[in-house]
Structures are given as C-alpha cells and as structure tokens.
Write a structure and sequence with these properties.
single chain, alpha+beta, D-Maltodextrin-Binding Protein, domain 2, 2 domains, three-stranded mixed sheet
C-alpha cells in the first residue's frame, strides 16, 4: 500500500473496546485489510499485524480483528469513514503524522518513497531531477506525491503507471516483477509497500527520494508515520503516545525485522 496524496494507502486500525477507546474490556479492536501484505492479512503475517500485537500486549489486552479493505471504491478515506469514524475500531496504526480528519499520535517511524532499480544498471538516480530519469522507462504509483512530481517535470508520457493501491487483486510485488522483466528500468514507490518482498530480489538497489524544492512549492516524499484515533479522543491518544515512547525500540525492531527501511528526511532544496 503506497502513501496516497490524501493519506497512506494501507491501514491497520486498532483500539480498546468500550466508548471513546477506554479500557473497560481488555480487547484491542483492530480493523485490518485481510489480504494486503506486507501490511496485514487474515493470518496476522503483516508488519502492522505485529505492531498491533505489540501495542495490545503493552496495554494488557488481546487483539480482536475486523476485516475491511480500503482498496475498494472510495479508497482509504472510505475505509476510515466505515471503520474508525463509525466506531468499529478505535485507532489506525499507520497514518501520516498530522493527517486531517483524525487525531494522530507522535510518530513511531519515518519512511520514504524510493527509487528501485537493478544494481547492474548502476543508474545515477538520487532525486526527481536526475537527468537519467528522462532517458529510461520509469514506473510509478498513481495518485501519489510521485505522480505530482512527475507531472511537473513532464515525465508522465512514456512512463508506466501502477494501481496497486487501488486494485485489491494485485500485490505490490507486481512492481518488483516489472523491474525484473524489464517492463520498467526504475520504479518509484513507497518503500513499506515493497519491504516484505525485497528480500526475494537481492539484485535490486533502493535509493531514497529526497524532499525537493526544485519547482516552486516544496515536494514531500519522506513522511513521519503515526497511529491515529478519532478526533476528540485525547485519552486514547495519550495512552498510545506513552506506549510509543516506552516501547519505541520494540516497534523499531518489528519494522526492521519486516524489512521496513527507516529514513531521516532531507530539507527541501533552496529555490
């Protein structure tokens, strides 16, 4: 699930049973996509499933899942409307820090869009304005900051668009397969979307897309990720902030073990 323009495409929602997220019952209610690895699945194999288990343990709770896909009609906003905002769950476990419409916790990791290409190509690709990008076949995810950046640079004609974040029948691994087959030379995608599959592609290079200010307004490609609760649920937000602060090392270890690469954002370039 790629980070979309409006919000991140893959989501895991969780919260304590009871009104306003209160711990009246020791259950962490989790809304998760049942078939969207590497984020989550019904077998609990995704990195967000494992984050939810760690949070539940810290709360002295058990996890109770409600399955829902956010890749259908209406996308992630509709997912939030019918799950978190409808009080079917209490917290989303993976949402950009400061997202509108929800109350977000302190960030617990920072990740980025990345350039991915075969190591053997030795491409000099370090930013969206790298000259080589206009000479080779580029793949990108629709409806993301990357698409906006490519449009500003006139790079869309001839590029290959992927709809993994919208098509529930397609795995993010399809983007790596496109690289292997030669359909594209460079793929630009949200790193956590491919994190669980990169271990099977030892021949691929991964390079962070830095934040830019090359053509007007700043372009953001690196995002701090947080957990989110319904607006007004300050009590649950405080609980989760405390858990993140006291269990940060454990949460980071889970991300590392599942191949999610952590990044430090670069400042946008001066105009």
């Amino acid at each position: 699930m790629q980070l979309r323009n409006s919000i991140i495409p893959i989501i895991l929602a969780a919260g304590l049973a009871g009104s306003a997220g209160q711990a009246s019952a020791k259950v962490l209610r989790v809304c998760a996509d049942p078939d969207y690895l590497p984020y989550s699945n019904s077998a609990g194999e995704g990195f967000e499933n494992k984050i939810a288990v760690a949070v539940a343990k810290a709360l002295g709770a058990t996890v109770e899942y409600t399955s829902a896909s956010y890749r259908g009609r209406g996308g992630f906003p509709q997912f939030l409307a019918t799950t978190l905002d409808a009080n079917k769950c209490d917290v989303v476990m993976n949402i950009p820090y400061g997202s509108r419409g929800e109350l977000t916790t302190r960030p617990y990791y920072i990740s980025s869009y990345v350039f991915v290409f075969k190591k053997s190509k030795k491409f000099n690709v370090t930013r969206m304005d790298s000259p080589i990008l206009k000479k080779i076949k580029v793949g990108f995810e629709r409806d993301t900051p990357v698409e906006d950046g490519m449009k500003m640079r006139g790079m869309i004609p001839g590029a290959v668009a992927f709809d993994v974040g919208d098509d529930s029948s397609e795995s993010p691994a399809a983007m790596l397969k496109a690289l292997e087959s030669g359909q594209v030379d460079v793929m630009i995608t949200w790193e956590p979307a491919i994190s669980g599959f990169l271990r099977d592609y030892k021949d691929l290079e991964v390079v962070m897309v830095p934040n830019e200010r090359a053509m007007g307004a700043p372009e953001q490609y690196t995002f701090p990720m947080a957990m989110g609760v319904r607006e007004g649920d300050e009590a649950l937000k405080k609980q989760l902030d405390e858990i993140i602060a006291s269990h940060q090392a454990e949460l980071t270890a889970i991300l590392n073990q599942n191949g999610v690469r952590l990044y430090t954002p670069e400042s946008p370039n001066s105009p």
